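Subject: Gliding motility-associated lipoprotein GldH structure
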Amino acid sequence: MNKLFLATAGLLLLAAACKPPKMDVYEKNLEIPGHDWTYDYKPSFEVTLQPEDTVFLYNICVNVRHTDAYPYSNIWVLVGTRYPGDSIPKEQRVELPLADVSGKWSGTGLDDIYEHRIFIQQKAIFNKPGTYKFTFEQNMRQNPLPHVMNIGLRIEKAGKRP
């Protein structure tokens, strides 16, 4: 009897330990090959939300890392979002400002490398649990876009839904 109880309790603990964690923050950055972002390189990020994650609001940010030699004050990006159960992503063109009107980089810098975390949506709602896929495509006139080192996605919890 005691051995059966201990075995059952052990299995329950093991099952609880295997449960995926709730999402507080997701962050992943990918290197741009050769630091030249071409039209055909479309970094993608997959975020899996559990049912209990859908009761929260989230801030969605794009992380950009570039050198001081980057020739523009912004980057236009096509952000594709594929929702769980959908086969066609929703696409949105987003401007990511990198410098102020005087040309001073707005991100944090170390030597000639600058990093930016740019909000593209605040207090976003994810209605369904499952895997969301985000894809970024550079949408500037210049191809390849030089001196872009990394692009990334950050999703952080912003409080409970009303």
